[in-house]
Hints:
This protein is an alpha/beta fold. It has helices spanning 14-21, 39-46, 62-65, 78-89, 94-104, 121-128, 135-142, 156-166, and strands spanning 4-8, 27-30, 50-53, 71-75, 110-113. It is built from 8 helices and 5 strands, in the order E-H-E-H-E-H-E-H-H-E-H-H-H.
Amino acid sequence: MSNFFVVGLPRSRTAWLANFLTYDGRFCYHEGVDGCSTIEEYKNKLGQDKGDSCTALMLLNIHKEFPNAPVVVIESDIKRAVEFSKHTYGKDLTKEMQQLKEQMRFIKGLRVPLDSINDCLEDIWSYLIGTPYDKERGNLLKNMNIQTNNYFNYDEKAAKTLLMRMQ
């Protein structure tokens, strides 16, 4: 087993994918970087066989820190992320979302359009996990609307410290 990652803008179904990928002895965090103030803390938290489905991963050099880990990149338009930030925080984060979208271009991995996730579940599973896909479970989870109400639910001070140390 090895680490695996899913990267996407806010509202790219990363919380749903974390639940989907937690199965059969595997665990996938959603925003696993939360609470970590160094890359070493994050690596220790993950261990050797866990995953993370996270927007903040775009700010990490995943390929440097986890050279053998497969990554799925969820391709989406920034409009949903910007609307969410306006609604939730009363702020226009268009510039920040554009910067995150730009960072996504440099991440190597399986690219899946947001609107095609349900049709690509077996491909995502095979690419990240490599064990037989449970179609019945996949179909069951397709009907669940798993999402976080507050995307920025992490310790802001810890997150800033971690990001500064990663640069």
